Amino acid sequence: MIESLFETLGVTQEQVLILMAGISAATISITIWITLLHKNPGARRVKMIGAQRAALRANMVGPRRRQERLPTLGFMRSFVDRLNLLRSAQASRISIKLMRAGWRSKDAIILYLFLKVALPFAFGALAMTLFYGLNLYGLSTQGKLIITIGSVLIGAYLPDIVIKNAATKRAANIRKALPDGLDLMVICAEAGLSLDATLMRVAQEMEKSAPELADEFSLTGLELGFLPDRRKALANLIMRVDLPGVRGVVNALIQAERYGTPLAQSLRVMSTDSRHERIMKAEEKAARLPALLTVPMIVFILPPLFIVLIGRAILKAIDALSGLSF
Question: Does residue 164 sit in the same domain as residue 205?
Fold first, then answer.
């Protein structure tokens, strides 16, 4: 059958083998090239830190005049300014949420506010077009209304859900990398480096292994060098990373600067506490594992087990009872 197919297509088996060998060789070459391709994930981060350094320097040494705000997002910025959404009471809280998610751009809050207002209308209009205009799936009037209202609610809460998930993932990565970062800070402090130099050095060393923590340490080191109040820079770190471990580290650093306590000793104690906390969280997850596996075991394991063990006896009993005459 295969030979007749080759004859119909006008090719031979040797040509097919050569083509398949060529495709395999090209696939292997592309795979090796992608694997050996040197990627520098810190290039974008270095560029962003440089822009933040320039902005801080401009605010510190630049002229004290109000600069004209240029529209960077065009229609979105004009829409948000027209509704005065940036002057609302929730604008500062939204900016804090965006910073905790890792989005510190000036346009991030503009994009969030625009999507927060536009997505409910867009999702509602799409649902009405599909289910009322095109009569998709032939639903009843009540079903169409429920789906439309659900689409509007999804559009309203979708930006918050995305930001919350991003902030949670970022906080988890920082929590995992914090003990290693504190160990490196202990080494730098014992070597005689200052606090801002310690943070910059640790950020440089952890740029690839823990980019989130490196980003926060880099920004804190920059703020320690440019802001007149060093406590403000450390308080900004707590505001951006709302974690108990980071809060304890900042309090230890503030006390070390205020009372002159040894910085290396305080950091060593905080590193030990962070490692213990990480071990406790791992043990907590391991302790919850049997309870989580109970439901899958009952649903997927026990029914096949019962069928294998007593299924044959049940079938024999049915055959025996069916042969009886009543």
Answer: no
CA atoms within 13 A on the CB side of 203: 21
Specify whether 95 is located in the same domain as 77. Answer: yes
- Token pair, residue 114, equals 């625009």
pLDDT of residue 66 exceeding 60: no
Supply the range of the domain harboring residue 126: 72-168
Which of 78, 72, 66 lies closest to 105 in space, CA to CA?
72
Global pTM reads 0.65
CA pair distance 250, 230, nearest whole angstrom: 11
The mean per-residue pLDDT over the stretch 15-35 comes to: 77
Backbone torsions φ then ψ of 62, nearest 5 degrees: -75, 170
Asked if residue 237 belongs to a domain, the reply is yes
CA 121 to CA 156: how far, in whole Å?
9
Same domain, 129 and 200: no
Closest by CA position to 270, among listed 170, 166, 189: 189
